Amino acid sequence: MIALLSRDLKLALRAGGGFGLGLAFFLIVTVMIPFSVGPQSSLLATIAPGVLWLGALLACLLSLDRLLALDWEDGSLDLLATAPLPLEAVVSIKALAHWLTTGLPLVLAAPALGVLLNLPGPGYKWLVISLLLGTPALSVIGTFGAALTVGLKRGGLLLSLLVLPLYVPTLIFGAEVARRGAVGMDTHTPLLMLAGITAGAVALLPFASAAVLRVNLR
Amino acid sequence: MLKVTDLSIARGGVPVLEGLGFMLEPGRALVLRGPNGIGKTTLLRTLAGLQPPLSGQIDGAEDRIAYAGHSDGIKQTLSVTENLNFWASVFGASGIQPALDAYQLTDLADRHAGNLSAGQKRRLGLSRLLVTGRPIWVLDEPTVSLDVAAVAMFVAAVRGHLGQGGAALIATHIDLGLAEAEVLDVGPFKAKRRALEDFDGDFL
């Protein structure tokens, strides 16, 4: 399992691995927002948590179609399926590698980009906490979507359509934590809901992903 | 070691082979022959556990098969050593040197797999079998894009594997020069088109 994780991280960091794709997209979106909505700092402060969350979610979505498709194309997925590793472990490790190369950089970059959007002072802490708690769910749900569409040529559109509705609860509660945090309200309830969604997704979805992957490999 | 009885398999919902049965003993190799599209690849994928059979029994396949299909599962941006080391640690094997030696990959060990020729990639793909430590090799057209010398390396590797009590099932169209291998022609097991069971002729 460690071998698979380190291989995936190595592949992501090497040329053409796609590391930084999501991060660059996130950067572009947040830099462009003040140009498009205008420079009123009060307006930017109001929309900052939501925009940052949406940017992170779309950046995550952007990198999903490479998640399993590359392994499927070169035949490694067939070989991994016949290896001693259970497929559930394979998809969990894939999701973890995706989070480490996409989700975690987004979490770390978010406070810096918050400055560009005039995010209120107390909001930084809650933005990081909500992203840290929410992005693992995005990776795990995304892996499920990637498993559903593996083997389809140009499956990116279908993947987005399948995954976006599943992302909605995470987005609602994640952005709500960040918004409430930014205006100094109590974040308890949305934080618990977000944690619940993530815990549920991490616990259950690898089994679903492995099951659909088995069907798709036939 | 591997026993297949009355196996029926389908590809894309269409039955391709039926009533297939054979035994594979330790130290023996079985060469599958048959025209294109007869279902050799489907049979090998079924044995490897990648798809379920329609009916029939496969005994002794669970966690004992090393499968090598049409694609080699090589990552272009990793070096030859990194590729092999990855598979070695997935299968819990130690040491990739025997695998490098068997296919004369030592000189290429630090090269990125993306820079290898098609034949060299195939050799790397086949050397993976040596680090799996699995007793039954299931190989689908293993000699594609190999030259005569590389085919000889492959045959030597298969002989070595058989000598250690392993077994091999090879689908191929060329003569490997593996004299001790038995040949199984899957042509006679081609699935017949079944008449529709609930077809009502009177309806016409």
Name the descriptors.
heterodimer, A: 218 residues, mainly alpha, 9 helices, elongated, B: alpha/beta, five-stranded parallel sheet, 27% helix
Q: Could you characterize what this model shows?
A:
The complex is a heterodimer of chains A (218) and B (204). Chain A has 218 residues and is an all-alpha fold. Chain A has one domain (2-217). Helix content of chain A is 81%, strand content 0%. The longest helix of chain A has 30 residues, at 87-116. Chain B has one domain: Rossmann fold. Chain B is built from five helices and eight strands; from the N terminus they run E-E-E-H-E-E-H-H-H-E-H-E-E. Chain B has helices at 40-47, 80-90, 97-102, 118-132, 148-163, and strands at residues 2-11, 14-24, 29-33, 55-59, 65-68, 136-140, 167-171, 182-185. In chain B, helix 4 (118-132) runs parallel beside helix 5. The relative contact order of chain B is 0.22. The A-B interface holds A 2-4, 7, 10-11, 14-17, 73-76, 78-85, 217-218 and B 45, 48-52, 63, 65-78, 82, 85-87, 89-92, 128.
In short:
Chain A is an all-alpha fold and 218 residues long. Chain A is built from 9 helices and no strands. Chain A has one domain (2-217).
